[in-house]
Design brief:
This protein is α/β, with parallel strands linked by helices. It folds into 3 domains: 291 residues, TIM Barrel (Alpha-Beta Barrel), CATH 3.20.20; 81 residues, Elongation Factor Tu (Ef-tu), domain 3 (Beta Barrel); 109 residues, Nucleotide-binding domain of ferredoxin-NADP reductase (FNR) module (Rossmann fold, 3-Layer(aba) Sandwich). 26% of the residues lie in helices and 26% in strands. It has 15 helices and 29 strands. The strands form 6 sheets. It has an 8-stranded parallel barrel with strand order 3-4-7-8-9-10-15-16, surrounded by 6 helices. Strands 20-19-23-17-18-22-21 form a 7-stranded antiparallel β-sheet, with helices on one face. Strands 27-26-25-24-28-29 form a 6-stranded parallel β-sheet. Helix 2 runs parallel beside helix 3, helix 6 packs across helix 7 and helix 8 packs across helix 9. The chain is elongated and about 75 Å long.
Length: 534
C-alpha cells in the first residue's frame, strides 16, 4: 500500500510523536533507515534557545500502560539543531516533521526560518500542558494561534498544528485553519495533573501530562470533533494507540496517520522494529501479534529504604549502604529518589545489602552525601540488561566506573580486575574484588597504590598474561575508548562490552536522552554495549 502526506510519497502510516524515543538525531536517523512502517519522522520540540528541561523525575507510571511526564521542552535551540540536522541523512520516502515551540508568532517564525531547509514541514506545539510560558498557554489564545499559524505557513512549507485535549478543540482547529494549517496532530497529553507517592509529588515540575491508554478514548473523541470541522485536512492521531484495534477505531473516527509513543515503553531497538512491522501487518490482516511486544511490568514503583551506613571515602566520594537488597543482574542500574530534591541513576556496587558508590559532583549527589544513618530514600528499578558472558572475563574500571563491575566478578569466578583511580582514597572500595577475582591489578595517578598512571597503561600486558574471553569496561569515555582499542587486538569486538556515562532520565526507553552515536538507547539496549553500538 502507498502512503502520501502533502504530496510526498512516504514509506508507512506511522510516526513516533515529538519527545518520545527518537529525541536524539542518532536514534531518529536509525529509525528512518531501519523501520519502513514509520513514514513520518517527528522531531523533539525545538525552541529559539537551548533549554535543559526539568530536573528528574520527569516521568512516572500513572496506571498500567499510562504515564505522567514533564520533560520541560529540553532541546539544544534552533541554531544548534539545524547544525545537527545538516549532518544526518534521511531517506527520500520519509516526511521530516520538525516540532517547534515559542511564546509568540515571531518566535515560532524565527525557529521555523532557521530550520526551514532541513525539514519537510513543521508541527506547531501549542499544546504542551505543563509549561507556564509555552504550549497550552499559547494554545488557549485563539487570536495568537491564528497569528502563529500564519507566520509559519508564510515560509512556504506544510504546517501541522498539535492540539490540546484540555482546550476547546473546535475553537483551536478553527483558528489554525484560518491561519492556513495543512494538517492536525491530535492529541497532546492530558493535563496538567499531579501524581503522588507516599504523599510526595513525584515530578520535579509538580504537574505533568498524561499519556498512554488513559487518554485513548479522549483522543478518539477529539478526532471525531475535528472531522466535524474539516473533512479534508490530514489528521495524525496520537493518544493511547498500542494495537491494531486502536488504529481501526481512530481510523473510523477520521484519522489518516498514527502516532505511537507510550506503547514503546521498555522496548529495545530490535523490539521496536519488530513491533511496527507486526502492527502494520495486524492492521492489514486482522491479527493481533503486535500486542506481545507491549511491556506491562516496568519496575517503576518506588521502594522505601533507609540508610544503614554512609562511608566517606574521599572528599568527593562516598559509599552508601542501605537496609535492604534489590535483585540485580550484572550491568543493571537503579534510580535513587529523594522527594522534592530529585532522582538520578546509579550502578549497583553491591546488591546485598544494596550499596552505591557515589561521586559528589552536583546538587543531587551533594544532597545524597548528606544522608545519615536512618534517613529515608526511594529506589526504583533495576533497569538495563546483563551481557551474556561465558569464560574468563577482564574487568576494566576507572573512577566510579568501578561500581558497575563487582557483580560481574561475583557471578563469574574466572574474573580478572584492572581498576584505577586518581589516588588511594578513591580506590578504598576495591577490597571486595580480591575475594572473588583470580587477580586484581591496581593503578593510581598519584602512584600511592599499584602502578603509577592510568588504568589502561599496562592493559595489553595484562591481556597477554590472562588471556580473557571477554572484556567488560566501565568508566570515563576517554578511558573506555583506549581500553577498546587495546583489547580489540586480542579479543573480538563482539566480546567487548562497555558502559559510558550517558544522560539517563527515565530508564524505560521513552525519553531517548541516553542515545549513543549509533542510535541505541543505553537504558534498554545496554547498559553495556559492544563497540559497534556505541
Amino acid at each position: 500500500m502507498k502512503y502520501q502526506l502533502f504530496g510526498k510519497e512516504i514509506s508507512g502510516p506511522f510516526t513516533i510523536p515529538a519527545g518520545i524515543v527518537a529525541t536524539e538525531l542518532s536514534t531518529l536517523e536509525k529509525i528512518a533507515r531501519e523501520i519502513p512502517e514509520i513514514g513520518i519522522l517527528t522531531t523533539k520540540s525545538i525552541g529559539s534557545k537551548a533549554r535543559e528541561g526539568n530536573r528528574e523525575p520527569i516521568i512516572a507510571q500513572y496506571t498500567p500502560y499510562s504515564f505522567i511526564n514533564a520533560v520541560g521542552l529540553a532541546n539544544p535551540g534552533s541554531q544548534e539543531f539545524a547544525k545537527r540536522l545538516s549532518k544526518i541523512k534521511i531517506p527520500e520516502d520519509k516526511f521530516l516533521l520538525i516540532s517547534i515551540f515559542g511564546s509568540n508568532e515571531n518566535e515560532f517564525k524565527e525557529v521555523a526560518g532557521k530550520l526551514l531547509e532541513h525539514g519537510d514541514g513543521f508541527e506547531l506545539n501549542i499544546s504542551c500542558p505543563h509549561s507556564d510560558k509555552y504550549g497550552q498557554v499559547i494554545g488557549q489564545d485563539r487570536v495568537l494561534v491564528e497569528k502563529i499559524t500564519k507566520s509559519v505557513t508564510s515560509l512556504g512549507k506544510p504546517v501541522v498544528a498539535k492540539i490540546s485535549p484540555n482546550l476547546d478543540v473546535k475553537e483551536t482547529v478553527a483558528s489554525v485553519i484560518k491561519g492556513g494549517a495543512s494538517g492536525i496532530t491530535a492529541i497532546n497529553t492530558k493535563g496538567p495533573e499531579l501524581y503522588l507517592h507516599d504523599g510526595y509529588l513525584v515530578l520535579s515540575n509538580k504537574v505533568g501530562g498524561i499519556s498512554g491508554k488513559a487518554i485513548l478514548e479522549l483522543g478518539i473523541k477529539c478526532v471525531r470533533e475535528i472531522r466535524k470541522i474539516t473533512s479534508s485536512l490530514p489528521v495524525i492521531a496520537c493518544g493511547g494507540i498500542s494495537t491494531a484495534e486502536d488504529i481501526k477505531r481512530y481510523k473510523k473516527a477520521g484519522a489518516n496517520f498514527f502516532g505511537i509513543g507510550s506503547a514503546l515503553v521498555g522496548m529495545n531497538t530490535e523490539e521496536i522494529k519488530e513491533y511496527f512491522h507486526e502492527l502494520l501487518n495486524d492492521v492489514e490482516s486482522g491479527t493481533n501479534n503486535g500486542m506481545k511486544f507491549l511491556k506491562e511490568k516496568l519496575k517503576m514503583e518506588y521502594r522505601k529504604f533507609r540508610v544503614k551506613k554512609n562511608e566517606q571515602l574521599a572528599e568527593d566520594l562516598f559509599l552508601l549502604e542501605l537496609d535492604g537488597s534489590v535483585k540485580v543482574e550484572p550491568g543493571q542500574f537503579i534510580f535513587t529518589w529523594l522527594p522534592e530534591r530529585g532522582e538520578k541513576p546509579f550502578s549497583v556496587f553491591d546488591d546485598e545489602p544494596l550499596t552505591l558508590l557515589v561521586r559528589k559532583k552536583g546538587y543531587f549527589t551533594t544532597e545524597l552525601s548528606k544522608l545519615k544513618k536512618g534517613d529515608m530514600l526511594y529506589i526504583r528499578g533495576p533497569y538495563g540488561n546483563s551481557p551474556k558472558v561465558d569464560g574468563r572475563i577482564l574487568l576494566v574500571g576507572g573512577g566510579t566506573g568501578i561500581a558497575a563491575l563487582l557483580l560481574f566478578a561475583r557471578k563469574n569466578k574466572k574474573a580478572v580486575a584492572v581498576l584505577g583511580a586518581k589516588d588511594r582514597k578513591h580506590l578504598a572500595c576495591v577490597k571486595k574484588f580480591s575475594v572473588t577475582c583470580e587477580e586484581v591489578y591496581l593503578a593510581t595517578e598519584s602512584g600511592e597504590v599499584g602502578n603509577k598512571g592510568m588504568v589502561t597503561d599496562n592493559l595489553e600486558k595484562i591481556i597477554e598474561k590472562t588471556q580473557p574471553n571477554y572484556c567488560i569496561n566501565c568508566g570515563p569515555e576517554a578511558m573506555v575508548k583506549i581500553a577498546i582499542q587495546k583489547e580489540s587486538k586480542y579479543v573480538d569486538l563482539e566480546r567487548i562490552y562497555s558502559s559510558i556515562e550517558f544522560l539517563t532520565k527515565c530508564g524505560i526507553g521513552l525519553c531517548g536522552s541516553c542515545a549513543t552515536s549509533k542510535g541505541y538507547r543505553i537504558c534498554v539496549d545496554g547498559t553495556f554495549l559492544t563497540p559497534m553500538k556505541i
